[in-house]
Amino acid sequence: TDIHGNLLATNRPITNVYWQGTGNKCFSKKQVDDLYFLAQTLDMDLPISSIKNRERYKKQILIAKDVPFTTLSKIAEHFAFSPNLTIKTQFERYYPYQMLGCHIVGYLGNNDINSKEGKMGLERFFQRELVGKTGLVQKTVDAVGSSITQREIKPIVPGQSITTTLDVPLQKIAEKLFPAKYAGSFILMDSETGDLRALISRPTFNPSIFLKPIEMKAWQQLTENKPFINRAYNACYPPASLFKLVTIIAGLEEGVISTDSTCYCRGFLKYGNRKFHCNRRYGHGNVNIKESIAHSCNIIFYEIGKKLTMNTLASYANRFGLGEKTGFTLPEQEGFIPTSDWKMQTKNERWWPGETICATIGQTFMLVTPLQIARMIAGIFQGYLVNPRILKDEPIIKTPLGIKPEYLTFLQEAMKEVAEEGTAKQLKKVKDIDIYAKTGTAQTSSLDKRKLGGEHIEHTWFVAHFSYKNQNPFTIVIFLENAGYVRIATNMTKQFLIEYKKHIDRYYSSP
């Protein structure tokens, strides 16, 4: 269930109707009438010859599967005292919201001909708890298969229920607003507790399709866009400009800049024989640190990179939880933060100063997951890293950042400017919510290939931290593969915050 008790996965009864043979060589008039009644009520042609065969040898044959309750009531009333009709109920997995939250919930697949097991998500990793223990019944039958006695030897032990931290109403809002044409992920995390209230990975799938055999053509169409990768924590991407938040902290903590530092941006920084460009080719002019973050100017970060080693930068990235698992319950990718030692060991090549300059803006070899980014952003505002939680009963685990509070406050103020005057200023239109943000675009190929489109277009990052009324603060992370324009993600966030306000006002505000 979600946090409110809404069912995300459950079992629904499947009631089947069987004809039980009683040993007659030919149908009696009553049996003929009964079969006619069955055919009319079920609105189907019955396999009369097969039924006749089972009737003669006291065997059972399936007549109809998953019979609706109203139809079943008519049949049960008509055959109340008939030895020829047997009604059996079994249970089938049921996903009330279908694709909603499917990457977290997971799905069941065939284990053998008679059973299914979890293949992904919570269905897989809590298989034992969800299934419970099977019972054992001893039956005695005669030579023709008729039951004589039956007794229970071992009772069934029902499976446990699992309460997740997901919030179905918020998940629905996010699902509705996520741009349909893009692959990517959306995370909404409680910044204080790590509770994941909404998590999306696209493309998506309907877990119900695995309850029955899938044709090869349908399977090929389904897997074409790799829908079973959870892009929120099982895929890694360059952090792009989001890494600038780490670079600023490293520069401040190591004393190579101060909160009052400024620089002049003319569109590039020349270092050695190479030009390192800003995202604005004709430059930003004189900018301070907050303005550099707000308008995503690269130059001051390059200047920091000239004065720090890659190993120092990597140590601060690790302090923010990048390049390591978040402690999430389900299996996740670790990501990667390079060091000069790693490059020498793996490539037998030194780490060049120009690579450190690129690393300050989140390029080179580094890779992170969106869930790691959510943890980092929440940490900037809480002063600790919290392990993301998907189960209500999980412990809340916090790890102090070890960063000076005044530097974290400075970073928060810079992210405030992003939302008010910088690359995410669209969010200024959302009233009464305290919003902080950062944007980023990650290159996927050389700039001259961008015009080819598709996989050559940049990935888009957007993060925000917000609070409204007396609710816990939330962290949003949006990642869109090959979207190119940050505006797509900021528009989604703006609409989400508007819908979030309506939701809170409707359900949680005091009278």
Would you kindly provide a written description of the structure presented here, covering whatever features stand out?
- There is one protein chain.
- This protein has 511 residues and is of the alpha+beta class.
- The protein is 32% helix and 22% strand.
- The protein has 17 helices and 18 strands.
- The protein has helices spanning 29-42, 48-56, 69-78, 102-105, 121-125, 127-131, 168-177, 216-223, 244-253, 289-294, 299-307, 310-319, 340-347, 353-359, 370-382, 405-420, 486-507; strands at 10-20, 60-64, 85-94, 108-112, 115-118, 136-141, 147-154, 184-190, 196-202, 262-265, 268-271, 274-277, 285-288, 384-386, 398-400, 434-442, 459-467, 474-480.
- A five-stranded antiparallel sheet has the order 9-8-18-17-16, sandwiched between helices. Strands 2-1-3 form a three-stranded antiparallel sheet.
- Strand 8 (184-190) and strand 9 (196-202) form a beta hairpin.
- Helix 1 (29-42) packs antiparallel against helix 3 (69-78) and helix 7 (168-177) packs antiparallel against helix 17 (486-507).
Short key terms for the protein model shown above:
18 strands, 17 helices, three-stranded antiparallel sheet, 32% helix, five-stranded antiparallel sheet, 511 residues, alpha+beta, elongated, 22% strand
